[in-house]
Design goal:
The complex is a heterodimer of chains A (243) and B (340). Chain A has 243 residues and is an alpha/beta fold. Chain A has nine helices and ten strands. Chain A is globular. Helices cover 74% and strands 2% of the residues of chain B.
């Protein structure tokens, strides 16, 4: 439907034992865009991410990235097409140092430790956690672990970054720093970003467009301002009675 | 070669000097030690070697094998049978042993990793393969079945490097070469992409996949390297001891013996298997000596001692003795991490 879309998700569904988690969801992200995916808890946002990133295979529908069909590919294959993702529930390599964690991502597509270390250092610097590089990942605070997730994904040199609630638990000032980081990545390295986020402060500042997911379906899309005025969106968050 | 040199130059001067000194001492050891002490050193080096082989799979990649005796046995029987029946030199026998063990490991790995058998279930699978191979060899007449398989023994005065027949000194140098080789290989692996991928898989498989790691492929590589090295240990075992019994060599106790040194020394560390092997051999021989002096007959006490050592180590030093020693020597983490 959209010729210049970098990511094109069309009619994707996934159910678990008859329970529908994502139903006929379609979205697209153009090259260079920052797009947010919002919705109440349990709406299926993370499931949709897992489908795109290859952690799960969709029941039906197509997922195209840069013109290639990636639906049903393994997660590592999706990664090597140029999609980096973070996990909402952070998954650091606990017994490895921060630098080593990020270097794992840096080895994507090359076997040289020097290159991997170079990429890792750049990713750590971008997230402002370079000074933590010698520490074991298990010693980090939650906000730092979130940054580590992003750095590891970034070190894979992605063209599209999938961010799953990386601002949750950050203080407003930290959120602003993170927003600046993503804006800079987007502008200077033309990294396209699709993010799941509850922190509306970040969504408003970052996203050019927003999709709203509710009960596995996309119920609204538009600019942040449009979406937050949409009665269906308010209803999904607050319940019909509140209106 | 350049990568090996880089490996060496990355270690701190202190580590480098300590390692060179140790290597020099080990090379001179046969001149200084009597036969008994030499045989002890051979044991230490043997367990350091197999421990390192097992450590690559468990310590680095997080795949627990409790059936490594399988590869010792298969490697031993392969090279011994080729030598005894066809007169093939054990050096070529090693190649055959490695091929057989890598094939076996690939079957086990494929079954486990393809169908998501992990953790304890994977460990049980490795035990099962070792056990049914043992039973198979009990009925394998070509290699003596349960009656045992014996290699021709020659005068120990001569040294025949081609056929690995002769004086224990030769076996000492062979064991030393194997242990040093496995040490260097592990050190190199830890700094390579494979080493990073192994540890990523160990710590979190899903995150590893998301970071671009083909987890199936790298788990296969880990089990294959580990099996290949353990096959060499088997060949060494066969030509050093000259007799093979399925009941002994495939025994589960043997598998446990292999993993004791790295666990007590420190799983996932480079020096752990070496330190662990030295400690355990000293402990067990010291106890044997002590019992002899006291005139106590207590078969099986060695196993009990191993059990106690393992329990104490897991309770009080879950990371093994090496991390503590490293800190005290001021080596820090540089055994695990490259210097900048």
């Amino acid at each position: 439907m959209n010729r210049e879309a970098l990511l094109d998700v069309a009619g994707v569904s996934k159910s678990f034992r008859g329970l529908s988690a994502v139903a006929d969801a379609s979205l697209h992200v153009a090259q260079g865009e920052i797009v947010a995916l919002i919705g109440p808890n349990g709406a299926g946002k993370t499931t949709l991410f897992n489908l795109i990133a290859g952690a799960l295979a969709p029941d039906c529908g197509s997922i195209r990235f840069d013109g290639r069909d990636i639906a049903g590919m393994r997660a590592d294959q999706v990664c090597s097409t140029g999609i980096g993702r973070t996990f909402q529930l952070v998954k650091p390599f606990a017994d490895m140092s921060v630098l080593d964690n990020v270097m794992v991502g840096g080895f994507r597509g090359n076997a040289s430790p020097t290159v991997a270390r170079e990429r890792a250092r750049r990713a750590l610097a971008a997230l402002h956690i370079d000074e933590l590089r010698g520490q074991p990942a298990s010693s980090l605070t939650l906000p730092d672990r979130k940054k580590l997730e992003v750095a590891r994904a970034l070190a894979t040199q992605p063209r599209l970054l999938l961010l799953d609630e990386v601002m949750a638990g950050l203080r407003p000032t930290e959120t602003d720093v993170m927003v600046q980081t993503f804006t800079r990545l987007n502008r200077e390295q033309s990294v396209t970003i699709l993010l799941i986020e509850h922190v509306m402060r970040a969504v408003m500042a970052l996203a050019q467009r927003v999709y709203v997911l509710h009960h596995g379906e996309i119920i609204a899309q538009g600019t942040p301002a449009e979406v937050t005025r949409d009665p269906r969106v308010l209803e999904s968050y607050l319940g019909a009675d509140a209106l | 070669m350049s990568e090996l040199r880089a490996l060496f130059s990355q270690a701190s001067a202190r580590t480098r000097n300590a390692l060179l000194l140790l290597l020099a001492l080990l090379l001179l050891a046969p001149l200084l030690l009597d036969r008994y002490l030499l045989s002890l050193m051979i044991l230490v080096l043997y367990f350091a070697f197999v421990g390192q082989a097992w450590n690559i799979m468990m310590g680095l990649c997080g795949q627990l094998s409790l059936g490594h005796a399988l590869y010792v046995g298969l490697g031993a029987y392969t090279a011994a049978a080729l030598y005894q029946h066809f007169g093939l030199t054990p050096w070529l026998g090693m190649l055959a042993a490695v091929l057989v063990c890598v094939a076996m490991a690939s079957v086990i790995g494929w079954l486990a990793f393809r169908f998501g058998i992990a953790g304890t279930y994977f460990a049980l699978l490795t035990i099962a393969f070792a056990e049914f191979t043992r039973i198979g060899f009990d009925h394998f007449d070509w290699v003596g079945a349960s009656g045992g398989f014996f290699l021709k023994v020659v005068q120990q005065g001569t040294t025949d490097w081609l056929n690995l027949r002769g004086h224990p000194r030769m076996f000492y140098f062979l064991a030393l070469a194997l242990a040093v080789g496995a040490f260097v290989l592990t050190a190199w692996l830890m700094r390579s992409r494979a080493g990073y991928y192994f540890r990523a898989i160990r710590d979190n498989e899903e995150a590893a996949r998301a970071a671009g790691v083909n987890t199936f492929r790298y788990k296969m590589i880990a089990i294959q390297i580990s099996a290949a090295l353990t096959a060499l240990a088997g060949v060494f075992f066969a030509f050093y001891y000259n007799n093979l019994f399925p009941e002994q060599i495939f025994n589960m106790g043997r598998s446990i013996e292999i993993i004791l040194a790295p666990i007590i020394g420190g799983v996932g560390t480079l020096f752990g298997p070496v330190i662990g092997a030295a400690l355990l051999t000293l402990l067990s021989e010291g106890l044997t000596e002590l019992l002899q002096i006291l005139g106590i007959q207590a078969p099986g006490l060695k196993q009990i001692l191993y059990g106690v050592a393992l329990a104490l180590s897991i309770m009080f030093m879950p990371h093994g003795v090496w991390p503590g020693i490293a800190r005290r020597l001021g080596l820090g983490r540089d055994a695990k991490e490259p210097q900048e």
